[in-house]
Amino acid sequence: MSTVPRAIAIAHPNIALAKYWGKRTDGHNLPAVPSLSVTLAGLATTTEVAFDAALERDELHLGGAAVRPDAEATRRVAGLLDRVRAASGRREHARVVSSNDFPTAAGLASSASAFAALALAASAAAGLSTAPEAVSDLARKTSVSAARSAFGGFVELRVGRPGDETLAATPLASADHWPLAVVIAVTREGPKDVGSSDGMRHTVTTSPYFPAWVASAPALFAAVRAAIHARDFAALGAAAEASALRMHASSIAADPGLLYWTGATVEVIAEVRRLRARGEPVFFTIDAGPHVKVFTTPEARDAVSRALLAVPGVLRTIAAVPGEAARLVLGSGSTSSA
Ligand code: PMV
Fold it and tell me: Who is most buried in 109, 132, 240, 267, counting CB within 10 A?
């Protein structure tokens, strides 16, 4: 068992092709639907965790600034650290210093990379197992989508068995299985209005369409999974777009309706459809924010990026490709179960 009290980890965001939206009602932060994502290279969160007996509480520094102790982000970080302390026997509080090289909390999946990096760095610093399944389960208890960023490439997260509190993502195919390209059309700077946890709670409790979303998600998950195995771009696009649109439809039908889109979001969807009608390999997906994530091939990427930049309301584009699992850059890992 490692006793290094300090570790640094890097993790990447992931984009779900089969969406997770809504939690099971039996607690433990378990998802109501299976999901499948691609971990990205090109965007990263770097997080340092240092346990320190001189600290009176857990501290979070984000992008160079101290976050207030009573802020939601600090509470979620402290919740994960409590689990690490309970499992490792360590008692010190920790200083957590984290930075993203992309916009935070704007629907660019920053919570996924943030909690995957935190789970790995905290586990290493506390001498717990840094095996990806252990890191995935620990991260999932705070942010479901973060479970998937523990692994690289194409990653799935099932719903788990009733009564089982443990649930980790599993890798489906490596990043080089299928060299897709992603172009993110950024349609707004700054944080989103409704975070994904609040948004899904509101959808689960008030949307008459939520049960329909839960009923249809497993078949879409299976279609996404089969298309990835077969490297069938058209089939993947059809299933991924249906997953995103049905997820958003469930929120739009909540009371009051929850709409993450702006006018530019809709304009980008229209442009993706025009590009596809002209024969370009493109499909879109949208998370809990106004940006549109467009999947294409490496050959078509530059043309797609130019077309998206020309859409009114698109501020800029970010390019990414399938990438690697979360990893330690300082501190020793241990894959034995501590
Ligand atoms: O786990 P969270 O709270 O980051 O929720 C993520 C939900 C979506 O990004 C909208 C979909 C997904 O599967 O990543």
Answer: 109
Structural contact between residues 223 and 137, judged by C-beta atoms closer than 8 angstroms: no
Q: Report if pTM > 0.85.
A: yes
* Tens digit of each residue's pLDDT (9 = 90 or more) over 73-107: 999 999 999 999 999 999 999 999 999 987 654 55
- What are the residues facing 9 on neighbouring strands? 47, 328
Q: Please write the tens of the pLDDT for every residue from 146-181.
A: 999 999 999 999 998 888 899 999 999 999 999 999
The CA distances from residue 129 to 135, 148, 227, 335, in Å, are: 8, 17, 34, 5
SS3 label, residue 60? strand
Residue with tokens 């001498």: 127
Rounded to whole angstroms, the Cα distance separating 258 from 135 reads 32
Q: Which amino acid is it at 242?
A: A
**Is the beta carbon of 196 within 6 A of some atom in ligand 1?**
yes
Q: How far is CA 96 from CA 117, 283, 313, in A?
A: 11, 37, 36
Is the CB of 144 within 6 Å of ligand 1?
Answer: yes
Q: How far apart are CA 187 and CA 314, in angstroms?
A: 5
Specify the DSSP class assigned to residue 53.
T
Neighbours of 189 (CB within 10 A): 9
Q: Is the CB of 228 under 6 A from ligand 1?
A: no
CB distance 133 to ligand 1 below 6 Å: no
Pairing of strands 59-62, 93-100: parallel
Cβ–ligand 1 distance for 35 under 6 Å, the answer yes
Q: Does the beta carbon of 111 sit less than 6 angstroms from any atom of ligand 1? A: yes
The percent of residues in the chain predicted with pLDDT above 90, rounded, is 87
Ligand 1: distance of its center to the CA of 20 in Å?
Answer: 6
The residue type of 326 is: A
